[in-house]
From TrEMBL:
Matches recorded under SUPFAM superfamilies: Ornithine decarboxylase C-terminal domain (SSF55904), PLP-dependent transferases (SSF53383)
Signal sequence, start to end: none
Protein's name according to its UniProt entry: Aminotransferase class I/II-fold pyridoxal phosphate-dependent enzyme
Coiled coil spans: 293-320
Recorded superkingdom: Bacteria
GO molecular function: carboxy-lyase activity; transaminase activity
Domain Orn/Lys/Arg decarboxylase C-terminal: residue ranges: 414-476
Family membership noted in the UniProt record: Belongs to the Orn/Lys/Arg decarboxylase class-I family.
Biological classification of the source: Bacteria, Bacillati, Bacillota, Bacilli, Bacillales
Keywords: Aminotransferase, Coiled coil, Decarboxylase, Lyase, Pyridoxal phosphate, Transferase
Domain Orn/Lys/Arg decarboxylases family 1 pyridoxal-P attachment site stretches: 20-321
Originating species: Siminovitchia fortis
Length: 497
């Protein structure tokens, strides 16, 4: 596996022992003034009694924008300082706190970069929020099909020359948008892609939802910012320690209009943001800089040792260890599959759940275990024992053999195409429902979304092919979960009239 050297951001002598926003919330609690403002639970005085023992402490700092507590939409004090500290820790020029997950970040980026009718080059295996953002912006995405890792069949960033060709054919695009790493922790070197974007005068946008810890130690892959990206969206809650729905949007360089970005975020984020989530972002940064980087280094070393030992013992299962196609892998993620390919990832998901180990994701081939920055040895032991138990159970399990047939989600790597109809036009057109097989050749009028990882198999406006229909049938038969389909049975589909 080719090893790209990472570099931890150099801190600019800021005081990272401070957590200014969290400290402002603590001061709010200590002053103990009578709340005659929102929220209605009044610092926890009025709340469900049976649940109060769980919520009482956090309700005391579930504040709002009043005197002494900064405003997310016009930060001048503790939030501004907290965001500056975060920018320093992650190597950005500017950082924006998000309270709607990376979804809000992707929507904000789309509405900042694109105006109605603008073209943008987008890696096709993006999270649904990217396509939703482009729909809202009225943009016309040009899709580029991802590369597929040969063992896991996971989609990832295609080779650079595909982007160069696509950019040469479409010099008027407003930017290039990729996902790196993918859900499975596979990371590609995008530094040359960043240089191509710089020369073309367009921003490189990276959905780095699963890589908030990247670049924070030499033992993990480098961050998108360190490789030259201009806009990076990170789910701080996924791989770092902030609360669910809290994320960060990092900006680097002069190509992005900060004023427009701030204005857009002010439009799509709540005017009553959760200060619990904002405070947790502040604390996640402090923990990362003060102790998390050392914990990350130690945890990776222990996980790698245990993974290598465990791999030698396994008879039925395998743990992916990388491939020549992937420059760096995230050592905090174990991709586990059965050596017998008739055992699906969905089956493994259920087996491990019954064993007491809940995986992050199951797909037709794999499951993924996601470890934290600081795993105790006893918790790693539990996972290892669960893997050994399922490995033995599969030896005894009678599985009906079936013909191996890969599910093809995307076009051939590097294929560049525009959907038959723009996302926004397709969303507003009249539609009607037909049998799945009868939909072939029509334009899709809904998002067909196996979840996780939340990457659409079909977007509105794309032409439905036999490959799409076959993939839907295969996924449904294997037990895949589809998010918000018009038909839970997946026997019918909305098409554009």
């Amino acid at each position: 596996m080719n090893m790209i050297k990472t570099s931890v951001p150099k801190l600019n002598k800021l005081n990272h022992s401070k957590a200014p926003l969290y400290e402002a919330l603590c001061l709010y609690e200590e002053t103990n003034r009578t709340s005659m403002h929102v929220p209605g639970h009044k610092d926890g005085r009025v709340f469900d009694k049976d649940a109060q023992h769980h919520f009482s402490n956090v309700l005391k700092i579930d504040a709002t924008c009043i005197k002494g507590i900064d405003d997310l939409h016009q930060p001048t004090d503790s939030i501004l300082e907290a965001q500056n500290l975060a920018a320093d820790a992650f190597g950005a020029d500017d950082t924006f706190f998000l309270v709607g997950g990376s979804t809000i970040g992707n929507l904000g980026v789309a509405l900042t970069i694109c105006s109605p009718g603008d073209k943008i080059l987008v890696q096709r295996n993006m999270h649904k929020s990217v396509f939703n953002g482009l729909l809202l912006a009225g943009a016309h995405p040009i899709y580029i099909a991802p590369a597929i890792e040969s063992v896991t069949k996971a989609a990832m960033v295609p080779d650079l020359h595909h982007f160069e060709e696509a950019l040469a054919e479409n010099p008027d695009v407003k930017g290039i948008w990729v996902t790196n790493p993918n859900y499975y922790g596979m990371s590609q070197d995008i530094s040359r892609l960043a240089e191509v974007c710089r020369q073309a005068g367009v921003p490189l946008i990276v959905d780095e939802a699963h890589g908030a810890h990247f670049g924070q130690a030499d033992e993990v892959p480098p961050s998108a910012l360190s490789m030259g990206a201009n806009l990076v969206v990170q789910s701080t809650h996924k791989m770092l320690t902030s609360m669910h729905m809290s994320s960060m949007l990092h900006v680097k360089g002069d190509i992005v209009d900060r004023e427009r970005l701030a204005r857009v975020l002010g439009m799509i984020q709540s005017t009553s943001p959760s200060y619990l989530l904002l405070g947790s972002l502040d604390l996640a940064r402090r923990y990362l800089v003060e102790r998390g980087r050392d914990h990350l280094k130690d945890t990776v070393q222990r996980l790698e040792r245990r993974r290598e030992e465990l791999t030698k013992e396994l008879k039925s299962l395998s743990i992916w260890a990388g491939s020549a196609e992937v420059q760096r892998r995230d050592p905090l993620k174990w991709i586990i599959a059965s050596k017998d390919e008739s055992v699906s990832g969905y089956h493994l998901l259920d087996l491990f759940y019954d064993q007491g180990a809940v995986a992050e994701i199951g797909d037709p081939r794999n499951i993924v275990f996601l470890f934290s920055l600081n795993e105790k040895e006893e918790d790693i032991d539990k996972v290892v024992e669960a893997v050994k138990a399922i490995d033995q159970k599969l030896l005894e399990l009678s599985v009906t053999p079936h013909e191996k047939k890969d599910i093809i989600m995307f076009e051939e790597e590097g294929t560049v195409y525009e959907p038959k109809m723009s996302l926004q036009d397709a969303f507003h057109r009249p539609r009607h429902k037909v049998k799945l097989d009868e939909a072939i050749g029509s334009l899709c009028a809904e998002t067909v979304l196996p979840y996780p990882p939340g990457i659409p198999l079909l977007n509105p406006g794309e032409e439905i092919t036999k490959r799409h229909v076959d993939s839907i049938k295969q996924l449904h038969e294997m037990g895949a979960y589809f998010q918000s389909p018009s038909d839970d049975s997946m026997e019918t589909l909305y098409i554009i009239k």
